Structure formats: structure tokens, C-alpha cells
Hints:
227 residues, single chain, three-stranded antiparallel beta sheet
Amino acid sequence: MDATPTTKPDIEQIAERITDAVMEHRLPPGIKLVEEKLANAFGVSRTKIRQALTLLAQDGLVTLHANRGAFVTRPTAGEARDLFATRRLVEPEIVRNVIARACEQDISRLRQHLAKESEARLEGDRRRIIRLSGQFHMLLAGLSGNCFIEKLMAELCPLTCLIIALYDAPQTPACPEDEHSRIVEAIAQRDEAQAIELMLHHLHHIEQELQLDQQTERGIHWEALYG
């Protein structure tokens, strides 16, 4: 929603909304983040925008260049492959921890999230599908009980969305349909081997859908970016 003089967002809120724009593919990789335009969009000072961009740079989502400004990070094909290799190392451990720790309430939370994903698919709401797909992996990380893994996934998930925005077709969902639900059911059955196998297949599937040898340039509509 639009910022107003009485409800000006703080630095963390600005950073979160920019992250959302990245994860929903409204903010393409490589785009310059013009402080003046962002300040006008959020109704805040350029100083506050600069602080939010510095915060995002610490997470790798924004790259700061001296005398040039801030840009949404543009991962290379090699970095994309490295990211998925990292996720294939980390997410099996997440699955193990969730199976070991999750109670029925946690499984219910996962299924509730799946219901939201199904609703978004039925409505053809791509922006919401992308957001929910990333949130699914973050939810699993949170349920794992490992704060260090959760912090790592908070960095990897937005970067994954950047990579998908750069190397995938706009019409392709961030996560293939039904793969999340199969992972959740394996977790609910406490079938560690199956859940890990499904997660690895899922990550491999996403990577294989990417066209890492080519890039598509996309425009940006600043006036609608934070609506």
C-alpha cells in the first residue's frame, strides 16, 4: 500500500517491502534503485532509503557501487548453480530437523500454507504464488529450530527468486505444482528418506527449468512497484 505522512515505514519495513518486490518479480535483477524515486514512493527521506539499501546489501540482495549507486544483485549463471548446490546441502538437514521436532500443530501450519498455495494457483495469481513458494521454504526453515539455518535461508530464498526472475520464463511458477504437498506428506509420515529425496528432486527440478545460458531483459513500472 502507499505510504502516508502518518504511517511512514521504518527502515526495516522499507527493506522488507523491497525484498517482497524482488521475490514477486516486480523488481528485476540488475535494476538501479534510484534513491529519489524510492523516497517518493515510500514518502520518506533519501537518508532512510539509503539506510534500507545498506541493510539489504548486507543480505546480498542489493549491490552497492561507489559513485554509481545501488542495484538489485544480478547473480551469474555460475552463482545460480552454486546457490542450488548450497540449498541441496542445507535443505535435507532442514527436513531432518522438522521431522524430529515438528508437532501436529506444525504439520497443520504447513498444510494451511499449502492451501494458500492452491488457492493462489486456482486464481492464477502469479505474484502470490511466487511469494508463497518462497515462504514455504522459509516456514520449513523456521520449524527446523536451527536459527543459523533459518538466517541462511532468509538470504538464499530471495536470491533464488532473483535467479528465477533472471533465468526463467515469467509464466513459469517458482515451484512446480504438487511438489510441496508431497514433501509435507512425507514429513507428516515421518519418512525422512522419502522427504529428503522429494526435497532434492524438487530443488533439482527448479534448477533444471532455468535457462542459465540466456537472460531476458525486463522493464520496471515504478509507479506500481509498491502497490
